[in-house]
Amino acid sequence: MKTCPSEFNCPVEATLQLIGGKYKAVILWHLIENQKRFSELKRLLPKATEKMLTQQLRDLENDGLIIRTVYPVVPPKVEYSLSDFGRSIIPVLNAMCNWGEEYLSSINAEIKSCK
Fold it and tell me: Quick one: pLDDT at residue 60?
């Protein structure tokens, strides 16, 4: 169920509504280069239960960030890819990645200095 834009108090809140789920940003990150099947995403997110991963994918699809393509073959083949709208979030994901790398570097430096 989509949230009405008037329900947001600030742009950060609107962004987090779309990508703030437990695995949403990570799923989007893995879809930047190419589409993935459910099993590939499950391998990339080993801590995610199938139920949680399915829910996160549904939310991303309902919000228009990803496209779910079902191929009429047996067994069924389903692939997920970024929509054009989903591609517009790539700069945000890149910024999150860069910030995370700096943060991890500082933590690793702290851990080494404590030994």
Answer: 97
Per DSSP (E only), the strands in 1-115 are 36-37, 66-71, 77-82
DSSP code for 10: S
Burial of 111 (0-12, 13-18, 19+ CB in 10 A): exposed
Q: Which amino acid is residue 14, in one-letter code?
A: A
pLDDT number for residue 109 = 77
Element (H, E) at 98: helix 90-114
pLDDT beneath 70: ranges in the chain:
1-6, 115
Residues 6+ apart with CB under 8 A from 63: 2, 18
Tokens of 32: 């930047």
